[in-house]
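In this supplementary section we document a worked example of the pipeline. Step one takes a protein sequence of length 149 as its only input; no multiple sequence alignment statistics are reported here. Step two produces a three-dimensional model, which step three serialises into structure tokens for compact storage. The input and output of this example are shown verbatim.
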Amino acid sequence: MTTGPGWVHGPVLAAVDVCVDPDEIVQRQDGLDRLYILLDLVRRKVKEKREIGCVDVWRRREMFVMNGIIGVRLNHEELTACLSLIKVLLNRDYTDPVLVSKLGYIQMQMGDLEGAKSSFNAVQGMMEKGAYGLSGYPLVLPVPSSSHP
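The serialised model returned by step three reads:
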């Protein structure tokens, strides 16, 4: 069984494990269904916690699950679905360079090279300003080495 955050229970982690097997369409769909069920549960918790004012943790969990769904769909080149999901996330936090970079990747895969270039330029601008990602920690770009072996 895969290890993961404490709030994710075994059956849900099994959904992620099942999604990794691209040869089994039925298992993949079952895994996606489980991820969407988890997303529904997390969204209900967001609504509940909003009323008592502690929604931040559940928002991060929602983004974690949505990123998992996007990843599964990207692996199967379901680009239109990925674009829809990433737009939902960007409507909440358009200043997150990780999300904007993922948008650029999706745009590039769809053949929208100008859109991808624009997204990647936006990420570069965010990085130069010291942008923060979903985790709240500063994002660091790898520094290219000046010497090549």
